[in-house]
Hints:
Elements: H1 4-13, E1 30-37, H2 48-63, E2 67-69, H3 70-77, H4 81-89, E3 93-100, H5 119-129, E4 135-141, H6 147-160, E5 164-168, H7 175-186, E6 190-193, H8 199-209, E7 216-219, E8 231-237, E9 245-246, E10 253-254, H9 255-266, E11 269-274, H10 279-286, E12 293-298, E13 310-314, H11 315-320, H12 329-341, E14 344-348, E15 357-360, E16 377-379, E17 388-390, E18 397-399, E19 412-415, H13 419-429, E20 435-438, H14 448-457, E21 463-466, E22 479-484, H15 488-491, H16 498-510, E23 521-526, H17 532-538, H18 542-556, E24 562-571, H19 574-591, E25 597-610, E26 613-623, E27 642-647
Parallel strand pairs: 4-11, 4-12, 5-7, 5-8, 6-7, 8-11, 13-23, 14-21, 14-22, 20-21, 22-23
Antiparallel strand pairs: 1-2, 1-3, 9-10, 15-19, 16-17, 17-18, 24-26, 24-27, 25-26
Amino acid sequence: MINPQRGLKDLLQRKWIESYLEPPSPPRPKLKQAVTLVDDIIPLDLTSRQQEVLILVIKVLKQQGGELWFNDLIKICSTSSSLLKNLAEKGCIVITDREVLRQDQGIFQTSDQPKILNQYQTESLQAINSLSSYAQILLHGVTGSGKTEVYLQAIAPILNIGKSALVLVPEIGLTPQLTDRFRARFGEQVFVYHSALSDGERYDTWRNMTLGLPQIIIGTRSAIFAPLPKLGLIILDEEHDSSFKQDQPSPCYHARKVAQWRAELENCPLILGSATPSLESWLEIKHKTQQNRFYLSLPERIQARPMPPIKIIDLRQELRQGNRSIFSYDLQTALHQLKATRQQGILFIHRRGYSTFVSCRSCGYVMECPHCDVSLAYHHEHPDAAQLLRCHYCNYSQLYPQHCPECESPYFKHFGSGTQRVTEELNRLFPELKCIRFDSDTTSRKNAHRTLLTQFANGEADLLVGTQMLTKGLDLASVSLVGIVSADGLLHLSDYRASERAFQTLVQVAGGAGRGNDPGQVILQTYTPEHPVIQAVQRHDYESFVATELQQRQELNYPPYGRLILLRLSSFNQQDVEQTAQKLAEFLLENNPNSDFELLGPAPAPILRVANRYRWQILLKTSQDSSIILPKFSEFNSGSVYITIDIDPLHL
């Protein structure tokens, strides 16, 4: 059905159907019964048992300042709710409903004191504390340089003057670890806000923000809209991360840009922290294209720990030597040594699941999603589980077929390696090593991120195997080995940002090694060791990589020098969306004769169909200061075509 809501409304108006659906009830305040002491005089008309309990209740309530939760009082006094209610009826105590805030409490944290800073941290903190109005600060610190400690000590004076701080992180997976560190320092003044909260937790956290009390909000990109009336500082940790950009659903926005606007409105500083800053932030702040821009550097790890050496393994040479395993000989040796040295390791894989696609070895038929123009990935959780094929776009799944649907051949082959297959190979080759998978498949449940990371931090596993989530600022001192199974999946993408994104990802994941007292090592496997990105990663050379990348961007007029405007069109009807895209392109060319822009398209999206919606796109390439007349999209919308605008898209 093209428009199910319109069809449902029409059927209801005709009274051909009746709807028994109830709208969801909005969140309400959570109430909890509290007991308040009225007087310490014991009435004469009480039974002996009531007198005995009342004497104990008076003693306990006085110790607690005159009030205590109803259920807690029952446990302490070893009594019943009916007896306490009888005492309330006789006027001895008062039982009232009190609102309690629902929030993610995390786990208990022992109190933490500010750490002694090194020279670079001290200089950076002094520069931040000297700012009391709007400014943008790029805190460029190598992995393990102590950026979080600078954040903590920069926030302390903000709270002392009665203001609040907003800390944005790219992924929910990073939130628990960062929240624990903040709560150890600031206690109950720390609150979290992200999509994994329940409706009640989000409702209470949102209302608590509006009270104006000094507090710290830690959240993902949507937290930039948190209604903090007295905002004194905004921090974007890992500011380069693409998760700060929302492209679905509309409206499309980048949390970094919104944070800049909000910091200007609130007249407060904005700190952008990263070991691999985005080219936009580097160009704007390092080169000071505007006023109130400051660059702060943390070029050394804390306690002068060395950066982990990165060994590049040429997989072509491994194949010539007869090694057909996923793991190179060097990586296998390092994995064998983990157990003996009682150390831990991280294995980074570009994708989740078991394999990239499944193909028939007889006729070449590739299993594809019936709703999207993509291949299905093979998933096999454990030996006793059903073998599944799953689409990573619409989540369609089906059982793994025993025969090819095209030629009935029983021979299928899995191509590529995901986290599942790597974990399976690890269990086969290294049965003495215990592995934990850390990807979006294993962390879908609430608190799963915290549970898995806590298990790993407690030494319950030897290896953490995961995808991009491992690059989100994890700080695990026990990790001495980082293995990058294959870097090539990041390098060869049809995207002008591919090199930047690959460099950032590889540097971030490599930075997870050697954060403790033991020196770390990184083993990076690739089929193209001569690639400029691989060479720059091996040297930990951010500045030369950025200089080369910026020069290429400037020559091609790509962001941050130029501007891209992506118009996405989608519809269940393939003909409608194609015709609408053609009309829209004609309008743009006819109504912008003097504008300096380049129109690319209209063309089908890289993946034409997702969830049965056909997708076309138009890309406008302009300079930063040019203006383009866009139409009223309602004039081009045939009723079935949906159009969105994305400024400077991160994914084409």
